[in-house]
Model the fold of this input.
Amino acid sequence: MEKSLKSSATSYGIYLALILTSLTIIGYAVYLDLFTKWWFGISQMILVIIFGIVSSVKARKLSGGFISFKNAFTAFFITIAIGIVIPALIGLVIFNFVDPDAAALLQEKIIQTQLSMMENFGAPQSAIDEAMKQAEAQGSFFSISNSLKSIAYQLVGFSIVGLIVAAVVKRNDPDLA
Done:
């Protein structure tokens, strides 16, 4: 992959990281309940995917309209990796070192939100009790190990999307065939 493709993907990753970090800081400082809203998480996922797609398409344009599957995926992955890791580290610092009390409060709010959703969907009490037991056994949602697991799961999940995006974005140069 040419240097310009990597620098373009890195730039998009930094822009994504800045947006997601800003949302994390605003959520923490202004409205902690924002982290319990389903639409907040979905909108962040959509934002990550959009940035990955734009990065892959931009990489194709930088390559003269042709790009291999590998380079399209690499552009996608670099963008989302930077965009996910930086805000996750910022969140880790905020909720583990700056204000651990906010993490405990937020964890309780998340558990209550999950409990309400399960009750609203008519989940049996045994399933609700099991879910609550698992949440308590898991420890802090914001621990270093849970944060690293979350980053890994997100990278794997978004990589699957990235494989699909790369398959759609790739375009082989007919002159080279």
About this structure: Residues 3-169 form one domain. The CA atoms of residues 118 and 128 lie 7 Å apart. The chain has a mean pLDDT of 92.
